[in-house]
Amino acid sequence: MEEEKELSKCNNCRIVRDVVEELIGIVEAAKSMGEFRGTQKKESQMLQRRLRQCLPLLEELRDLDAQIPEDCISCLHRLKRAFVLAKKLLKTCHAGSKIYLVLETDAMLSRFNSVYDKLNHAMDGFPYKEIGISEEVKEQVELMCMQLKRAKPRMDNQDMELTSDMMTVLLADTDRISECEAIKRLANKLSLNTLEELRVETIVIRKLVKERRGQNAEGTEKIINLLDKFKRFAGIEQANVLDDPAPCNRTLQKCASITIPFEFLCPITLEMMRDPVIVATGQTYERASIQQWLDSDHQTCPKTGLHLTHTALAPNVALHNLILQWCETNNYQLPKKDPPPPPKITRADKVITLIQNLSSSQLQIQRKAVTKIRMISRESPESRVLIADNGGIPPLVQLLSYPDSKIQEHAVTALLNLSIDDKIKKQVSKENPIPAIIEILQNGTIGAKENSAAALFSLSMIDENKTLIGASNGIPPLINLLTEGTIRGKKDAATALFNLTLSHPNKVRAIEGGAIKPLLKMLENERLDMVDEALSVLLLLAAHPDGRKELGQLSFIETLVRFMRQGTPKNKECASAVLLKLCLNNSNLLLAALQYGVYEHVVDISQNGTKRGQKKAAAIFQLMNKGDRFLSRT
């Protein structure tokens, strides 16, 4: 009987010790993970600390030599399940997809919350006293459990900003320059610029897709879409993300048993180099691969992402000799060099050919040419100058009236991109594109309408064009886009209307065309996030008596006071400016605003608002003082 008890005790201790060793191993693995991704970094570090706080308890349990109650063993098994989930979560935050971590922020916070709940549940009712755990360790663990109960994972400002940027990029048209800048900023924040960074992200996403097994298809599609955008922006040739991630050296398929030294492989193709050359950063590549990279107008090192101070290629003779020696030793035959490429066509020659093809009699050639011109026009100021100086603007303007919706959309977007440069903007204006752009704004595809509105905004930077757009009946279709367009369409329309209504005749046209009603609706739709844009246009329209008459409704005054109370600093600034404009011409509206409690909000803006907001608040105070003197005299 005594032997059976001793055997049972040994088995009991062994079970406990095995579980405890596993738990300690998980904690040590979590400690060694190092840096976490930028997203959820604070929560990851917090969870890492919570796991470390369990170490003193686990070490005491490991050293116990007494019979452990079954309820304690149950707690340890629950703790093991919680630790496994915590380790998996930390691993995702350490080496998971950067895109996934930002896009699925809410889901990640829920996972942290679930881990905290499971840790707390595992420790609930732990028999510290019965098994002889020291008072100090008990207090430490109970304090941790209390903190876990209070812990509520929240998205910090940096994560919120990244999520907002990612949604902007997800909706972005990569052919529009301003939105390419958004992709560039996000790529910099996430460190998804270089060939190596994007290769690693692709491998991680591919693993994620396989793990999901078709579940959450919509979220997976968004992740792949974003990865493609980053790759296109970096100039990397596209491949299906579900394909095999590891580029296979074709020459090794027959010699799978041979392991080639990694330094013999080109970082771009991952194939053995036959003609290794050194670039300005000191990195080595296969000559043909790096030359193709440079010919595609890249000015950075593919592996490091550093700027190349020059594009000269120096043969890496030492490495070439080592490769030859290795091949001879291993009886491995290098593949023959590809035949020399045909004479290089310069970028200018390519652009000139594309411009000539814009006037082709064959529809497919025209479509291909205008699509390429659209892409080139967004790349750089030098590219836009190249198109303009080689006569690309007149055929693009002619294509605005071509009876093909896609050609129209590509042409108007190319002209939009070209007009970003002030000098080229004038060249575009000389070709009189405005009537045709307005026609597309009225009858084109959704994308064409949006880009037409953006093009009118760009061209209206020239004062004569403001008058021409208004006289050409360009304001009604902008108001229509403001009413019926997509979120981006509404923003493009509002931006264009703002610029156009700087002109007094256009204020009249906008008011008569019914612009105020959709602008007021935009203020009520929080999903649009266009309060500042709408208020900025309304401020301009309030400069006209008819605009003030339509805006001088109590409901609108109440709306302005609401934004002055709870809006962003910019919202408060814009709302103050509009209220001041209306009250300067109607003291009754000021009295109404006071009844809605505006006074304390004006005080707050005068002290804590933006510089312009403080000025507007001070002017509203002056109006209030004048009103007090008037009332006291009467």
From TrEMBL:
Catalytic activity as recorded in UniProt: S-ubiquitinyl-[E2 ubiquitin-conjugating enzyme]-L-cysteine + [acceptor protein]-L-lysine = [E2 ubiquitin-conjugating enzyme]-L-cysteine + N(6)-ubiquitinyl-[acceptor protein]-L-lysine
PROSITE patterns to which the protein is assigned, alphabetical: ARM_REPEAT, U_BOX
Residue span, U-box domain: 259-333
Enzyme class: transferase
One term of GO molecular function: ubiquitin protein ligase activity
Function: Functions as an E3 ubiquitin ligase.
Entry protein name: RING-type E3 ubiquitin transferase
Source organism: Lactuca virosa
